[in-house]
Design brief:
The protein is mostly helical. Helices cover about 70% and strands about 0% of the residues.
Length: about 475
């Protein structure tokens, strides 16, 4: 039973409201953040969110006016302040006044450039709050009744002014609120912007902002390329929001269509539009690039989905098996087994596990067998191929040894010994504590091992360690 002196909610309630109020006032006397939190809580008592909205609007205006640089040790406090305003909007204003909450969140997002300009957010504290506020904006927007054309104007301006990524993904987040009419209006605005002729250039007035292997980099060229990227990104997002697979595909060049990642993204959208043949055709454009190698996980996944959609189940199954054989990806094996008839799946699993035991990459195979799980086979793998153990892979071997301790103590011991040997042979002194614990575990496991086979028993192994590393006091005293 907890003591009456334990700091918990029940004991604090027992102090009484008056005493707690006195303590809060005392504790917040020199704490501006605590005072702001208390004021917001008091404002929330009025109901309807109006008083909280007024307090948040005032605080955001104060932050917007600030110009002093925020030192590194105060950035988290600034982020906490912004998050306090965000949470107050979501919790107290949005339920009763979603339109007002939308405006306040928009105001908070517009603070991003000035806030980033006066602090170093390398730890991402402020960025995390901004990202959450952007997501909240999308959620609340769906509950408001914005005029589509007016909202499209605001989104157009925001995307244009997106200096620090504060409005990244805004079109997708507000797609529901924009509706088809708003998205169409937004598309028209960006297409009109794309069609504008470039401004006239006077050679003598062009500003050089850098140099590349191809010569000077002019500011107007840099800005034009950035503008083109923004327009293309926006039109791509709009096509996605409208479910326009062809419009999405049209945003990529012919060369980009041969990129497996781009081809997979296009094919996925064609599949959503119930056009599997077109999806396969899109994937074929990048097949040559995919076959050359590289990490393109989406291309085979979407291809299999397209084959399934076309009823070409045998090809899809063959593709799943081929990927599993090549990579030991458990997701593809499970998907393959799931689609087999009863008893066929058992036979196929046995064949798959036999393949894993012979897999060239010993540690990849061990990882698979531990996770599948197939612990008996994992132990057999270790005993059969123990010479391939790399004790430097402690992130794999430590949990693997723990998993096999109960039923395969010798296999667990060999993995622990491999980590001990690496730590001492390479004088990795920071691991000596772990190595010492591993040795203690080996001593405990030795009591349950009847036959060490060709391996030295625990006493002999410990004696070898002492002979080779007796002077490494950091290990022996750990």
């Amino acid at each position: 039973m907890a003591s009456e002196k334990t700091l918990n909610g029940k004991n604090l309630v027992a102090l009484g409201a008056e005493r707690l109020a006195e303590l809060l006032l005392e504790l917040s006397k020199n704490d501006a953040a605590a005072k702001r939190r208390l004021r917001l809580e008091l404002a929330s008592r009025s109901g309807g969110g109006a008083d909280v909205a007024a307090a948040v609007r005032k605080r955001l205006a104060t932050i917007a006016k600030a110009r002093s640089f925020v030192e590194w040790n105060k950035v988290r406090a600034l982020a906490a302040d912004l998050d306090l305003q965000r949470s107050a909007i979501v919790q107290h204003v949005a339920p009763a006044q979603p339109a007002e909450a939308f405006e306040l969140l928009w105001q908070l997002l517009q603070l991003a450039p000035s806030v980033y300009a006066r602090c170093d957010d390398s730890n991402g504290a402020v960025g995390t709050v901004i990202a959450q506020a952007r997501d909240d904006l999308g959620t609340i927007a769906a509950k408001t009744a914005h005029a589509p054309d007016l909202l499209a104007e605001r989104v157009f301006a925001a995307v244009q002014a997106n200096q620090y990524g504060e409005f990244d993904g805004l079109i997708g987040l507000l797609a529901e609120a924009l509706g088809k009419d708003g998205l169409a209006a937004l598309k028209a605005r960006f297409e009109a912007l794309a069609a504008l002729p470039p401004p006239p250039r006077e050679a003598g007035d062009r500003r050089v902002i850098g140099f590349s292997t191809r010569g000077p980099i002019y500011q107007d060229d840099f800005e034009a390329r950035a503008q083109a990227r923004r327009i293309r990104s926006a039109l791509t997002e709009i096509a996605d929001a409208l479910g326009d697979a062809d419009g999405y595909a049209a945003r990529f060049s012919a060369e980009e269509h041969t990129n497996p990642s781009v081809a997979a993204a296009i094919a996925e959208r064609l599949l959503k539009a119930d056009r599997p043949e077109a999806a396969l055709a899109a994937l074929r454009l990048a097949e040559e690039s995919f076959r050359k190698g590289g990490h393109w996980p989406d291309w085979p996944r979407v291809r299999i989905d397209a084959l399934d959609a076309l009823g070409r189940f045998a090809e899809a199954q063959a593709a799943r098996w081929a990927i599993f054989e090549r990579s030991l990806d458990p997701h593809y094996l499970r998907a393959h087994l799931k689609r087999l008839a009863d008893f066929e799946d058992v036979e196929a699993e046995d064949r798959a596990l036999a393949h894993v035991r012979q897999y060239a990459d010993f540690h990849h195979a061990l990882d698979f067998l531990i996770a599948w799980p197939a612990h008996r086979l994992a132990a057999e793998l270790v005993l059969a191929r123990y010479a391939e153990l790399d004790g430097d892979r402690y992130w794999l071997l430590t949990p693997a040894a723990e998993a096999l301790e109960a039923r395969a103590p010798l296999a667990a011991t060999l993995m622990l010994r491999s980590m001990i040997d690496v730590s001492l042979d390479r004088a990795k002194h920071k691991r000596y504590g772990h190595a010492a614990r591993h040795l203690q575990t080996c001593e405990h496991l030795a009591k349950r091992i009847d036959d060490f086979g060709t391996h030295p028993d625990h006493d002999a192994y410990a004696a070898q360690l002492e002979a080779r590393h007796g002077r490494k006091s950091g290990f022996w005293s750990a």
